[in-house]
Amino acid sequence: MPPPSQSRPRSTLAGPPTGPEHPFPISLSGPIIQGFGRGSRDLGIPTANIPLAGLSVGGHEELESGVYFGWAGIDVDEHGVRIDGSNAKGARGGVWPMVMSIGWNPFYKNKVRSVEVHILHDFRQDFYGARMNLLILGFIRPEYDYVDRESLIADIRTDIEVARRSLERESYQRLRGEGYLVQFEGGEHEQEVAR
Hints:
By secondary structure, the protein is α+β, with helices and mostly antiparallel strands.
């Protein structure tokens, strides 16, 4: 589907002001894996990807392709260094705002559906293999097929601002404290997702 006319301004908020409504919030979890390598290289917007199996393990394989927002808990510090029992006693990782794409990325003609998460934080290094817990709080827009990369980048930048502004509201901000986001003990779920 092509994007709507750029002559109409997009809404600067997503989701109702009272907080997430059904089917949200949605929880997904998985190890961070290497994606197609386009987020940073082609678009200047790095992503942390989880296996597509994360959708089926969470019971959400039918989730509409599109752009979503919420919180991401990752077992890394603010620089992207893994946190485990050997380097930080009692440390639990961090929680950051995120915007994510679930879909086929028609601009790139993907043959497989992907789950690509952009964390709204600048990390100093990659952290493949880290565990990530997602709390998806709302839907921003459907997936579009763009005529050029510049239009795609412009819409992603708008998605980032919509996510940031939406998460600043109290009813969404309080969900940043959900314990699930920093529960990384035991790798059973991540092993299941990685299959």
